[in-house]
Amino acid sequence: MGEGGGVIGSSAMSIKRALSIAGTIKGILGISEFEKAVSGMKSSNKTDGGETARTISYLLNWMQDNKDVLVFATANDVRELESEQFRIGRFSYIHFVDLPDTEDRSEIFKVHLKKRELVPEQFDLEKLVDKSKDFSGAEIEAAVKDGVLEAFIDGDRPAETRDILKAVEGITPTAQMMSEKIEEIRKWARNNIKGAAGRTGSQAIGGNRGDRVYEF
Description:
The chain is mainly α and 216 residues long. It has two domains: 7-94, no CATH class; 96-187 and 201-208 and 211-215, Helicase, Ruva Protein, domain 3 (Orthogonal Bundle), CATH 1.10.8.60. The chain has helices spanning 7-25, 34-37, 44-48, 51-65, 102-115, 125-131, 137-153, 161-169, 174-177, 179-192, and strands at residues 28-31, 70-73, 95-97, 213-215.
C-alpha cells in the first residue's frame, strides 16, 4: 500500500512525522529497545514489500544528517544490531551499562518508594538491597508495586519492609535465568568498549563489578 494507505504505510508516515516534529522543536529524541526498532531489514522484501527496510533506512539516514536533535537510544543486546546501525556518525558515544550494583539498587528502591508516597527511611533498605541481587531496575519497581498491592490487600495498610521483601523473594531476576547470555554481552563489552576490559572479566552474576558504565 502507499504511504498512509494502511498499517504499514501509516507506521512509516508516523515515524517521518515524529522526526519532523523533533527537528522543528530541536529537542531530545529517545528510542527504546533500538535493536527491535531497526530489526526486520533483511526479511522486509518478503514480509511487507520492503516498507520496513525503507522506513529504517530513512531513520538511519536522518540520524546521520541530523544536527539539531540530541538522539539517544537503548538496546538490551547491542549484538543484534548491524554495524552500520550504530556506527560513529549516527551515535557519537556508545556506553555499556551493567546491572545495578548495591548503591544503585538502594537509589532505585528509594525512587519507587517515594513515587508511591512511602518514606524510604522507614524501610530496611540494606536488607532489600541484599535480597535483590542481580535485579534490574524494572524488577525492583515490580517488587515495590507487588509489595504495595500486598499491603493493600492485607487490610489497606501502608507497605512495610516485609511486604517488599516477600515480593522480592517471589521474583527470579532475568539475569539469573539468562546468566549465560548476560555474560556473553559482558564479554562483547570487554572486547569492544573502552574501559570494560579487566572490569567485567572474571565477575560472575552477582559479583562486585565496580564502575558499570563503559564507553567506546
